[in-house]
């Protein structure tokens, strides 16, 4: 039996390992909140990462097609801008839907209803 036929309801196949890593989850959340993109320095500050960590995580996200990194200059200074791709936005929303299901399942298993802050994170999704 495959895991998608309902035989393994708690396998959460949609928990994408590329996204699920803590730093990349923070990066994608930051970029989701800023659809026009963010400067490298702003993203670094928002996520509390070093230059090297941020560069490496952006590389992973870029290779996966989730993030677009544009390098250029502002005046004589190098300027790097990062933004979600259309596919990255869709994949991240799909990932969030799986997280919502996980929260609902965990709350049900604990014998209580999910709280308003833990359910319905994505508008239009049940």
Automatic annotation (TrEMBL):
The name this protein goes by in its record: HTH arsR-type domain-containing protein
InterPro entries in the cross-refs: ArsR-like_HTH, HTH_ArsR_DNA-bd_dom, WH-like_DNA-bd_sf, WH_DNA-bd_dom, WH_DNA-bd_sf
GO MF annotations, alphabetized: DNA-binding transcription factor activity
Provenance organism: Bradyrhizobium oligotrophicum S58
UniProt xrefs under SMART domains: HTH_ARSR
Gene3D superfamilies: Winged helix-like DNA-binding domain superfamily/Winged helix DNA-binding domain
All copies of domain HTH arsR-type, residue ranges: 13-108
Pfam family, one: HTH_34
